[in-house]
Amino acid sequence: DNFVVPDLFLIEIDNILSKKVRKRELDIPGAEEIFSIIRNLPFITIPYEKLSKEVLFISTRFPVTQYDACYLALAVEYDGRFYTADKRFLRGIENTAYSEFVIGLDEV
Fold first, then answer.
1. Alpha-carbon distances of 107 from 4, 89, 92, rounded to whole Å
2. For residues 12 and 7, what is the distance between their CA atoms, to the nearest angstrom?
3. Are the beta carbons of 37 and 51 closer than 8 angstroms?
4. pTM for the whole thing?
5. Low-confidence residues of the chain: pLDDT under 70
6. Pairing, β 102-104 against β 82-84
7. Residue 93 — left, alpha, or beta (φ > 0 → left; ψ -120 to 50 → alpha)?
8. What DSSP element (H or E) covers 21?
9. Long-range contacts of the stretch 66-70 (C-beta < 8 A, 24+)
10. What are the pLDDT digits (tens) for 82-95?
11. Helix or strand run (H / E) with residue 46
């Protein structure tokens, strides 16, 4: 199986790292180490443009953010699964055709 991510994945990871450093929950060398580890993982990055039509469809019809819709659109496009701990997102798409593509982390 391939680990496929939207191109915003790296921005989101880097944003988390910088927040953790600013909150003093992680030191700079630790952040830099995680940065390198993430960059060396064998994932495939998919550009937003390839997903944007489905992302707009999802985010204009269901109470989910564009960011979450990117991950969901990716799961749909590649017949994969989007694992999330975001309960609000899960509620937003429950009882829809999209729910089959999402797995809550509490179900793992």
1. 21, 15, 17
2. 9
3. no
4. 0.85
5. 1
6. parallel
7. alpha
8. helix 8-22
9. 67/8, 67/12, 70/6, 70/8
10. 999 999 999 999 99
11. strand 43-46
